[in-house]
Structures are given as C-alpha cells and as structure tokens.
Amino acid sequence: MKRSAKWYNNQLFPWLLPIVFIVLWQLLGQYKILTSTLLPTPVEIAQAGIRLFKTGDLQEHVLISTQRALIGFFIGGAVGFALGLFNGTILFFERLTDTTIQMVRTIPHLALIPLVILWFGIDESAKIFLVAVGVMFPIYINTFNGIKNVDRKLIEMGTVYGLSKWKLFTNIILPGSLPSILVGIRYALGVMWMSLIVAETIGADSGIGFMATNAREFMQMDIVVLTIVLYAILGKLSDVIAKLFEKRLLKWNAAFNK
C-alpha cells in the first residue's frame, strides 16, 4: 500500500493531464484537424506571447490586471472578513445585517455592470468595485460559518479558564474558523479573476481583457487564446500561493499537513 502511494505523490503528477492535453492539442493543430483560425496550436500561442513580451506589451498589461485584481481583492476581502467577524461573534449584528447580506448575495454581481458604469463610468474604480463585490461574499460567508462552527465546548472551556475575550478570540475562535476562512479566500481568488475578465472587456484601454478585445477585433486568435491562458496561469498561481499560506497557517491541523 505504501509503495503504490508514492508514485502519485510526486510533484509532477498533478501536471500529467495538462501536459497530455497540450500535446494532443498541438498534434491536432499540426495535422490540420484543428485550423489556426478556429484554435491556434500551443506553439503559435507561445510565439505570440514571446512577440508581445519583446515589445513589452505583455508585461505591461499583465501588471495592470494584477494590480486591479489585488486592490479589489483586498478591499472586498477586508469588508467580507469584517462583516463575517462581526456577525459571527455579535448576535446583534447577525440579526441586524445577515438576512440583508444574504439577499444581496443572491444577486449576480456581474448583473450590476450597467449600474456600475452609471456610478463610476468606465475608469479604474468601476473595475475594482466589481472585483471587490465579487470577492466580498465568499469571504463573508466562509468567515461567518467558520466562526459559527467553532466547537462551543472549547469556548466554554476557555471561559472557565478565565481567558479574556481577546485571548478567547485569538486562541480558540480564530484558529478554529481559519480552515473555513482560507477555503473562502481560495474560492474568492477564482471569483476575483472571473470578475476582472468581464470588467476589463468593458471600455478598458489596458489590461489582459483589453488585449483580448483588441485582438478579437483584428481576428488575432493566437492572442485571444493567449489572454485566456494568462488568466488561467494567474488563477493557478493565486491558488498555489493560497495553498502555501494554508499549509503554513494550518500546520497544527493534520488534515492540512500532508
């Protein structure tokens, strides 16, 4: 049993399916089963990336998109965490605001685009606002549920031992809710990039979404697919960083220390 467990624990194993997919994709394009006008090959996409890298356009647009995503993530994440914290620990706030937040949460945040354009126009604040709204709710709901699901017996034990409210929070409530909060962050990172993709295709003059829109108008399919690949890479990189934080912060939890 131990011997069979070793081969799939290899660091390269998770990349097996993507590599097979890329090789198959290249072969289909190489033998003209898929035409370049329909779907360019990975080699053609890589060549487009190198071309844009040499001109400096690739780095510029990726940096701008990353800045928008991170600013929106930190604003929405901070608001979502604060609301989840207050509603999870103070019954008054939960009764006052949770029902309203849950109602607003059911509205697709991308449906707000017409209103956002009227409120903010099509400048940076509109894109950041859409990302922030998308990120806020996953972090809120996971923070709120994480705090609510902390073992009440542990809280009672801490109270019996005379822990102050601050120590009760930092030593019992926060560590107990952290797995749920980190799941919310990982989910929110995916929503962050999805929101940005839509936001950047609306009146943008820079960013990865602008590259995609501009390339579509000139039928540059290699650049259009390249932008999709860039979003996928950035999304994967975000998830990898989140998992590293997860491992570091949850070393005490056996389920996350494998």
Automatic annotation (TrEMBL):
Record key words, sorted: Cell membrane, Membrane, Transmembrane, Transmembrane helix, Transport
Principal location listed in the UniProt entry: membrane
Sequence intervals crossing the membrane: 12-28, 69-92, 104-122, 128-147, 168-189, 223-242
PROSITE patterns, sorted: ABC_TM1 (PS50928)
Listed Gene3D superfamilies: MetI-like
CDD domains noted in UniProt: TM_PBP2 (cd06261)
Signal peptide start-end: none
Transport as UniProt keyword: yes
Superkingdom of the organism of origin: Bacteria
Membrane topology, as annotated: Multi-pass membrane protein
Subcellular localization: Cell membrane
Record family assignment: Belongs to the binding-protein-dependent transport system permease family.
Name of the molecule in the record: ABC transporter permease subunit
